[in-house]
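Design review, sub-item: ligand-bound model
Attendees: FS, YL, KQ
YL presented the inputs for the zinc ion complex:
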Amino acid sequence: VSAFWCELAWLGDAEPAAGVVIEAGGERIGSVRVGVAEPPPGAIRLAGLTLPGLANAHSHAFQRTLRGRTQRVLGGSFWTWREQMYELAATAGSDPARLEAVARATFAEMALAGISLVGEFDYLHCSDAIVRAAHDAGIRLTLIDACYLEGGIPAFRDASAEAWALRVLAIELGDRARLGAAIHSVRAVDPAGAAIVSRFARDRQLPLHAHVSEQPAEIEASLRRYGATPANALARLGAVGPDFTAVHATHLTPDERAILAGSFSCLCPTTERDLADGIGEPPGRLALGSDSNALIDLFEEARAVELDRRLGTLVRGTYDAVTLATAATANGYASLGWPEGGRIEPGALCDLVTVGLDGVRLAGTRPTDALDAVIFAGAAADVTHLCVGGRVVVAAGRHADLDVPGELAAAIAALS
Ligand SMILES: [Zn+2]
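KQ shared the predicted structure:
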């Protein structure tokens, strides 16, 4: 049994609790006690604010390579960015060893940012490399294998939805990895294929994800192909339910918002800004993703949902810090098929992130305001500790096993 003493811990309320002792028994939290003034003997002292580990519900790890390389195009769009991404994807998809190195370094960067669980939306079909990468980086993984039948580049495409299912059934996962299914988008999968993937996921109780209405052109393509907008089309084929996550969900009609009200919406605001997608208004339970990994900082993703909304509506306060922190933790875990994670309570997974309050961004924060300060002003760089299943993966801002900047530099250079 290991124990942690948290100066402050977010247990679900607007104001954090002080002096919280969390005892781990294996992977899970055994007990939680509040109001303990001093660390008990042998407990690991966590100064600052401790939250449940963060869940990054939507990532394409290989796209980390594009950071800083797509910004000089003037008058561009999602579609001009996609040309650069396809070029990289063709290289990465044909070389699993180089892809694995980038994914390991990127997942380790996520660990340093306080992310204990990543949903890797994989349409390069390099599952072995992704599973090893997450294991080596010390974080949990939901491998969301995406069915992709049409368009894109050859490396993305499955021969059929049946071939996709056979490939997925053969995937081997380690201890801290689970499986998810995805319909890449209504652009990339035909109606019969989408129905097969939906049934496969439902029969096996897997989380099912899809890119939904990121760009207006996708809606036009869906109307031509399916005679319906994307969420309507997916609902008709059996995709939409409580285990469904609509990624982006940017350009929804009112009836689509009603259809998705019982599902998850995963917003990826820094990517949606970067690609000029638009401002989303998520229905259902909100989750968050770093998507293209142009930035890896879930505090930025969380506040962006609210701050972008303020720009669009001229109203301050649609999503409060508790709602945004829940999106970054419990909702992300549930969206990725780990409903037992994302909370600090007995029986939950012992995944914890600690944010220091003594750095230049957060010094002076009153204990009662710590959650608001972390969500609206904190940064990945303020993360000091990450614990995954009771094991300390990041301590004092350093990864336990990997030289993360060194690995990123080498892996990105090798893919360029
Ligand atoms: Zn995506």
